[in-house]
Amino acid sequence: SSSPKPNSSFISSSLSQTPWLCIPCCSYILSLRVLPSSPSLPSIMHPFRIGLVLILFRVCSASFLPASPILKRPAPHLRPLRGGSDKMESEGGEQARSSWVLTVDFGSQKTMASLVKVGEEGSTSPPFLVHNDLSRFETPTEVSFRGKTCETGELAAMQPATNAHNVVKEFVPYVGLPPREVREAAIAPGFRVSDDDVLPVTCAAVEFDGSDSSFPLELVLARHLEGVVGCAKHQLVEMRKVPSKDAADIRLAVILPGCFTPRQARALEDACRIAGVEDAYLVPAHQAMAQGYEQRHKPEIEQMRNSSVKEQTIAIVDVGHMISSCAIVRFTPGESKIVSAKSIFGVGGAAVDSILVSHFKEDIERKYGSGCCESPRSLFRLRAACEKLKKMLSTIDESEVGVDGLLPERDVTIKLTRHRLNEMIAPLCHQLQELVKSTLQTEDSFIEGSSLDGVEIIGGASRIPCLAAVVQSAFDGKELRKTLDSNSALCIGAANPAAQFFDPAVSQEKKDCNLQNALKSFDVKGLEESHLKGLREKHMEISEMQAQLRRLEVAMNNLESKMSETREALRGKHAHLMKRDETESALKEVEEWLEQVPQEGYSVEMLEKKKEELELKVRELNSKMFEQLEKQADEMSRSMERSAQERRQEEANQDKDDHDFRKLRFDERVRMAENNKKEANELFRDGNVMHAIDRYNKAIGHCMKIVETLRPEQEKQLNELKGVIVLNLAQAFFKLNKFQKCIDNCNDCLRYSPSLSKAKFRRALAYEQMNLLDEAEKDAKVLLEEEPENPNYTALSKRLGLKLQKRLDKEKNICKKMFG
After folding, report:
1. Nearest-CA neighbor of 143 among 135, 134, 133, 152?
2. Sequence-distant (≥ 6) Cβ neighbours of residue 128 within 8 angstroms
3. Alpha-carbon span 377 to 165, nearest angstrom
4. What average pLDDT does the chain have?
5. Please, which pLDDT band fits residue 240 given cuts at 50, 70 and 90?
6. Closest to 118 in 3D by CA, of 515, 489, 512, 495
């Protein structure tokens, strides 16, 4: 052979490692030996060589790989798809599992969370936001205590003003700080700081389970985190149809605010451990902002990286509720790098609220006496009014807000102008300006604001015109862009590094562990293991208590629903079959039992047993009624089955394939439609209504297949024919008591033949049967105007008038009973 001989060692190694490669190699070599290649070889021999290769391929595959799992694998288009993945099941029958990463952004006021799916081989799906129990993406960062109840999120935010002293909110920036620093903070915390210094951490003072309690902020945050994780698992199982065992194995990533100290970062990890998460990943807020911007502007950045510019520098400013941050991010072809980043606590919307509360508190106490705004309830209402006033002044120059219930028997109104607000928050504007300038001052040089490629501003307080103007002036008048969502930018941006960290396909060297390594280098420890264990047990105890309360509430609701059903039955149409006195006595007995037993003495078992006893007693006393109800249920079931069978028959008749695609003349199509109409009329007269409907539909089909350009007289003839056919269809549906379809066909008839009175008459009859008396009366009036002497129209009008008068009398009687 003139071809070079392949190395035998390569063949053996291919056979042992990649069987699919060795088979065509061996087949081709053997074909060369049998039919050697030569210039003198006739071209007619090439087909024989191809056939010989195929035969040898089959022999080699059967000899070398008799039981290869690769050959047994089905074709790609036949592979089973499970959970939206096209991965094959493993030999053990288990599906390649994917993990879910939950990224949480604990804001001062609102918490946002996102989920991202990480595949076994590193495939990552786009992140999506997690909604709470009220289908909102923003969950209030609040935890409330009332009696034995501990609520988080939306339920905590719904607590009344009378329980304001037991609501812990705006606490995240204080997690991990000593009590002394919290009391001396620039912004007063939104909770009562406990004086109990048993633990070296800040505790919130609340009333829980009938006694005064002190809960560390780490435990409070763990309670809130449990609610967020619960919403994420519920969304995966109920909406994404993820198996429960996969939803239970959620990895957690938490965004670390820029102003947090190493001790506070440890406190975040402690809170996660108290909630049962041991390996939480912390994502710096500046990195989350940069990633969020890169994801939002990915096409623009990719275009830059492929162009000759090769570099883009962006400033991102986050003016939040209690924390403000600024970061300079440089995007290059290889990476995105944070050049400079700074954060400050005490500059934001909460600081503006505090200034307004102090101002109006002094003003109100000067007018109505000192001490009138000291109670937690008064401060709660005054702060809510100040927040509303702040938002209104962001859009208009002057506004006023009423404060309800601030003083007994006295209405209080607060008013302010935007100019006056700007004067009051001037120190905050100066601090924000200094933050931007210090961020522009890097270790190497000072970055000019005009040299930046863009300035992005996010955060709720960025809507305050004065603060936005200060940021713009600090960047030399650079235009501020608002292309990112202020609420979700961080949790969506942090999803990418979090997914990469938990991705098993990414090597440890490529994972971003800079923050975790930096925390290890600091000589900062979190809570002692004994304290963590005690807080974990307390957290589980509260969770079990809440679960028991929910079960008790469900059992109580079931018992009360049963009592309400029984009372409703005593007033229903089967009341004559019931023993009224004995049934009311049984209900009264249950009511007395509920009143005698104290609320703390109830148990789920007691309530369920009492409900079963009530059901048995009511059934024994009113056996005749239950027998009647069972008969009606059986009749209803049979009626529904008949209706379903008729519907299937109708759909079968309507869904027959129409293979008539001929291009026929107008006269021919009209003749075929007339013939089908005549056959349908005969079937209708004989009582074969369903078959008549089928023929009418075929007649309409012939009319619809006329596609040629028609003369005016032909178009008039066709519309008249369509009108008659659909009018007959309406009559057929009326015969079957399908009044809505009758009305639809009458409307079609009037579209083809507006002057056809029969269509209006049949539509009015159908409206009457559906008890749509007002619509029927409209048609009856039109018919009487057209033909006043028609007896059918006159009888219809009189009948409708009596029914309308009867309905009006009934409404008057109801109003008399309601209003005397």
Report:
1. 152
2. 114, 115, 116
3. 8
4. 81
5. confident
6. 495
Is the pLDDT at 94 greater than 60, yes or no? no
pLDDT at 455 over 90: yes
Say if CB 346 and CB 186 are below 8 A apart. yes
**pLDDT score for 429:** 93
Phi, psi of 510 (to 5 degrees): -85, -10
Q: Nearest Cα to 235, choosing from 126, 130, 134?
A: 130
Alpha carbons 369 and 113: distance in angstroms, whole number: 45
Distance CA 92, CA 89 (A): 8
| DSSP letter (8 states) at residue 463 | G
Distance CA 250, CA 136 (A): 21
Question: Pick from 211, 204, 240: which is nearest to 115 by CA?
Answer: 240
Separation CA 350–CA 321 (nearest Å): 5
pLDDT category at 160 given cuts 50, 70, 90 is: confident
CB atoms within 10 A of CB 469: 13
pTM: 0.66
Cα separations in angstroms, 180 against 193, 201, 262, 386, 446: 10, 10, 18, 27, 37
Q: What is the pLDDT of residue 706?
A: 80
Share of the chain above pLDDT 70, in %: 82
Dihedral of CA atoms 533, 539, 540, 546 in degrees, nearest 10, equals: 170
Q: Give the integer Cα–Cα distance in Å for 670 and 65.
A: 69
Query: Phi and psi dihedrals of 635, rounded to 5?
Result: -65, -40
Q: Cα(745)–Cα(755) distance, rounded to whole angstroms?
A: 15
Beta strand extents in 332-409 (DSSP E only): 336-345, 398-407
Beta bridge partners of 142: 169
Q: Identify the pLDDT of residue 711.
A: 85
Q: Provide the 10 A C-beta neighbour count for residue 309.
A: 11
pLDDT digits (tens, 9 = 90+) for 639-663: 777 777 766 666 555 545 555 667 7
More confident site: 646 or 283: 283
Residues 787/793, Cβ–Cβ less than 8 Å: yes
CA distance 89 to 82: 9
Supply 105's token pair.
């952004």
Q: Which long-range contacts (CB under 8 A, 24 or more apart) does 545-551 make?
A: 545/148, 545/150, 545/209, 546/149, 546/150, 548/604, 549/148, 549/149, 551/604
Instruction: Using DSSP, state whether 403 is helix, strand or coil.
Output: strand
What is the per-residue pLDDT for 18? 38
DSSP state of 152: E
Check: CB of residue 594 under 8 Å from CB of residue 604.
Answer: no
pLDDT digits (tens, 9 = 90+) for 27-79: 444 444 444 444 434 444 444 455 554 554 444 444 433 333 322 333 333 23
Please determine, for residue 437, whether its predicted confidence score (pLDDT) is greater than 80: yes
- Tokens 């979190």 belong to 526
Task: Determine the number of helices (DSSP H) and then strands (DSSP E) in the chain.
Answer: 29, 18
- Rounded distance between C-alpha atoms, residue 39 and residue 266, angstroms: 79
Taking a C-beta distance cutoff of 8 angstroms, is the pair 469, 369 a contact? no
Give residue 194's region: left, alpha or beta (phi > 0; psi -120 to 50): beta
Spatial strand order of the sheet with 167-169 comes to 149-152, 142-146, 167-169
pLDDT digits over 459-495, tens only? Answer: 989 999 999 999 999 998 999 999 999 889 999 999 9
What is d(CA 102, CA 97) in angstroms, rounded to the nearest whole number? 17
Give, for 134, the enclosing helix (H) or strand (E): none
- In angstroms, rounded to a whole number, what is the distance separating the alpha carbons of residues 472 and 319? 13
Please enumerate in sequence order all residues whose Cβ is within 8 A of that of 368, keeping only pairs 6 or more positions apart, or say none. 407, 410, 412
**Could you give the angle at which helices 689-704 and 712-735 cross, rounded to 10 degrees?**
160
